[in-house]
Amino acid sequence: MRTVRVLGVDPGLTRCGVGIVDGAPGRPCSLVDVAVITSDPGQDITDRLLNLERELTVLIDKHRPESVAVERVFSQHNVGSVIGTAQASAVAILAAARFGLPLYTYTPSEVKAAVTGSGQADKKQMTTMVTRLLRLDTPPRPADAADALALAICHVWRGGTKQKLENALRKAISNDR
Amino acid sequence: MRTVRVLGVDPGLTRCGVGIVDGAPGRPCSLVDVAVITSDPGQDITDRLLNLERELTVLIDKHRPESVAVERVFSQHNVGSVIGTAQASAVAILAAARFGLPLYTYTPSEVKAAVTGSGQADKKQMTTMVTRLLRLDTPPRPADAADALALAICHVWRGGTKQKLENALRKAISNDR
Question: Do B86 and A90 touch (CB under 8 A)?
Fold first, then answer.
């Protein structure tokens, strides 16, 4: 099985987690890099979005992943942060598009299920599993970093199967109209 | 008083209103262009965001506004559409930044108050006033188009005063830390 490099993004405007792993479906993954891109809520929104775009671009350019996995934003998210989360996800999606990288989105439960076996796992359990799966000496901190790594691991293991199904379904629906 | 050209954006992923007007504070504005950029909710999110970015870029490039006014997204917005609205606003903010244009945000009540005198005005009243203020023969349709024009008019008349105050305040606060 060929090894792939995936960049995972846990979107956020104040703290955006980015995790890059190498791996193949059903085999252990290895950590390439992990970062949290931060911005100050008191800063101008333009500067915050530009900063996030710039930092994400640097990481993509440095590590050249084959695909990007971004957490899917839901309105059930914390209402106070959903706007920043949605804006950050748009920046991540456009950054991936500029490098011509395929983009995949996963819900938090899908990521939890892939990494811990349960869609209801809590943050502590997620961090424990990410630390174990990547054979790290210490847990990645803060939680945004662990979540971004979990997204990347989730995508490596699911190997894009889900997105292929979704694309086929979308095509079938639009042909049907 | 010098005439300025402002591009207003009523952000949305399915329908994004864009209105461009010329005017000066306290004087009538005139319509330059108005458009609604649409995308299909069944389409891939990357394609939707890229399409919006491309269309906005074409309009900015064609009309060369001096500034861009975007509606500020609130979590009180319709929860079903707040994510698309937030993502579209991020695309608009980055598009303005790429042209080096100053960006201003206004709440819906600020726009309503500027255009109708009341922060509680309804859609019908807004459309009526935008039609009157721009001396149009027929009301701009759909509502997203009227809202985008109202944003642009709001910014022309407020002449960036509000943002200057906010910037000064932000500076004062950050110096104080």
Answer: yes
Question: A82 is written with which tokens?
Answer: 């959903």
- pLDDT of residue B162 exceeding 80, the answer is no
Can you tell me whether residue B56 is helix, strand or coil?
helix
DSSP state of B77: S
Cα–Cα dist A15/A17, whole Å: 6
Is A144 annotated as catalytic? yes
Question: What is the ipTM, given to two decimal places?
Answer: 0.84
Instruction: Say yes or no: B75 contacts chain A, CB-CB below 8 A.
Output: yes
Closest by CA to A8, choosing from A124, A155, A120, A138, is A155
Q: What was the pLDDT predicted at B154?
A: 96
Q: Please answer yes or no on whether A75 and B89 come within 8 Å at the CB atom.
A: no
pLDDT level of residue A26 (50, 70, 90 thresholds): confident
Q: Which of A37-41, A163-167, B92-96 has the lowest mean pLDDT?
A: A163-167
pLDDT of residue B38 exceeding 70, the answer is yes
Q: Which residues of B touch A46 (CB under 8 A)?
A: 93-94, 96-97, 103
B78 at A interface, C-beta within 8 A = no
A4-176 CATH choice from 1.20.1440.230, 3.40.50.12780, 2.60.120.1060, 3.30.420.10: 3.30.420.10
Residues of B whose CB is below 8 A from A79:
75, 79
Q: What strands, in cross-sheet order, belong to the sheet with B15-23?
A: B30-38, B15-23, B4-10, B67-71, B103-106
